[in-house]
Design brief:
The chain is built from 4 helices and 9 strands, in the order αββαββββαββαβ. It is an alpha+beta fold. The longest helix has 9 residues, at about 1-10. The protein is elongated. The N and C termini lie far apart (about 60 Å).
Length: about 180
């Protein structure tokens, strides 16, 4: 029974995960726009870092892939949308900043900040005019905790610590035209 108690204590250490739950595109004024729902759960280590002043960078990576019959498929376009998530101890609020657009919001709870990050609506990804009319396309989306912007010493630590390897699987669908 004592061993069981030790295992229960270990369960307090939360493993984080990122998952793309759904994603689709629709053409709005000649531009393919993304709607997606993500589940973003921070690991205990990432949460502790956030609450001690480390700004986390969450990145959405998108690829538009042209399907080809007798050759490998071709990545036609790539897009990375980066967000910063930080905790402000003065205001006791979580701040989400879109590094691509400069937009920023603040939230009373981490849950509401991550929920907001996980709701992508109407994000323009590619102009329909640049796509070949006689080709089929797929779109892939994934979310990841991007550690590239941290100092080299921290990146080495992150590499060896699995709780910092937060990245969803690719979520893929056909581009409707």
């Amino acid at each position: 029974f004592v061993l069981g108690t030790g295992v229960a204590q270990d369960d307090v250490e939360r493993e984080g995960y990122f998952e793309v739950r759904s994603a689709s595109t629709e053409v709005v004024d000649g531009v393919h726009a993304l709607d997606a729902r993500l589940q973003l759960v921070l690991s205990s280590e990432a949460l502790a870092a956030l609450e001690s002043g480390v700004t986390l960078t969450i990145e959405l990576q998108l690829q538009v892939i042209r399907e080809r019959r007798f050759m490998p498929d071709d990545v036609e376009a790539e897009l990375a949308v980066r967000y910063e998530l930080e905790f402000s101890p003065v205001s006791q609020r979580y701040v989400v900043r879109n590094l691509n657009s400069g937009d920023q919001d603040s939230f009373a709870t981490l849950y509401s900040a991550l929920n907001s990050l996980g709701r992508v609506q109407g994000l323009p990804i590619i102009d329909d005019a640049v796509l070949s009319a006689d080709s089929s396309y797929r779109v892939r989306l994934r979310a990841m905790l991007n550690t590239e912007r941290y100092p080299a010493a921290l990146r080495i630590l992150f590499f060896w610590r699995g709780q910092w390897q937060l990245q969803s699987e690719w979520f893929e669908w056909l581009l409707e035209r």
